[in-house]
Amino acid sequence: AQSVTQLDSQVPVFEEAPVELRCNYSSSVSVYLFWYVQYPNQGLQLLLKYLSGSTLVKGINGFEAEFNKSQTSFHLRKPSVHISDTAEYFCAVSGLRISSGSARQLTFGSGTQLTVLP
Amino acid sequence: GAGVSQSPSNKVTEKGKDVELRCDPISGHTALYWYRQSLGQGLEFLIYFQGNSAPDKSGLPSDRFSAERTGGSVSTLTIQRTQQEDSAVYLCASSFDPGQGAGGYTFGSGTRLTVV
Fold it and tell me: What is the spatial distance between Cα B116 and Cα B110, in angstroms, rounded to a whole number?
């Protein structure tokens, strides 16, 4: 079984400031990691994913995330945010093993509402 | 189509009525998922379809909820005798599976269900 904890439910930040959205996970198996973004009244859009290899993953819209296995974290960062980045951000995990039931679904965190202030 | 299509986008229903929510996945995606997003909460897994295999129904909250997927494509989520606590956004997603771990899901825009 897996679980995901997003430590901050709301993050307000001024435009052009840096931001970090925190995500920690727990799992008994190796995992894939994802960040999704949800703009108001829309579905979820994949921002980036970690599958293997380099622990620093770059995604769309200037976001990046770093996988830290020892700390079981996958924090999302952006060096300079824009008003248009205001949205809800979800961290998610899935198990690696296709034959495992845990690989069949994503487990999501409860989300972090990022609000960029002018 | 190019994306996952869900209909209707909004549904208001009276308590006790049945509702059907529809999902058209991306053509060729063998895996289809339903999630529920309640106000201020994360996404709750409901059900998973993979090809012709028996669906994983472990997330369905009660026997009032059921889903089917016809011909390995379109899926319908049915909620019988709706209750106010069923009010939520119901999201459908599809992916290549066993490739789902590599690509993540593609989500539809959801159906916002309001039970009054």
Answer: 19
